[in-house]
Amino acid sequence: MWKISKQSFGFVLTFASPMSAQDMQDWVAESKRVLSEPLPGEWGVVVDMRELSALTAEAQKLMQTGQALYKQAGMKRSAVAVRDAVTAMQFRRLARNSGIDQWERYINVQQVAQWQSAAKRWVVEGTEPPQ
User: 42 Cβ partners below 8 Å, 6+ apart?
Assistant: First the structure.
């Protein structure tokens, strides 16, 4: 399951398991569509992966493709909310491979109660989230 929500600061992307390769292909296609619409001058993405388990190898490749699309379209920063270390490690690797790791921060929702506020502050202001 996935969802793209356009916001004043950019987008909120929500992912939850199960996520098949087909689901990921659908997300990439919809991402291409929404990124072709007018965007704010400077924008970012908050990614909610609290309910997402590790992805298959094929779904990972498609996620990388999608991440690169957002960066190429002008994404300034992204904040990713995760619940477990395995998902965080997987997405850190994917971010390195797609070239967005410098602009992406991970927030463990079990350690940061107000993760939404912390994520938005990073995306909008560049304020580092709590570790």
Answer: 74, 76
* Domain of residue 28, CATH code: 3.30.750.24
Instruction: Report pTM.
Output: 0.90
In a domain, 131, yes or no: no
| Domain total of the chain | 1
C-alpha 56, offset from chain centre? 17
Instruction: Tell me, yes or no, whether 130 lies in a domain.
Output: no
The parent domain of residue 80 ranges over 2-125
Residue-by-residue pLDDT tens, the chain, 131 positions: 999 999 999 999 999 998 999 999 999 999 999 999 999 889 999 999 999 888 888 998 998 899 889 999 999 999 999 987 777 787 778 778 777 777 889 899 999 999 999 999 999 999 999 87
Judge whether 68 lies within some domain.
yes
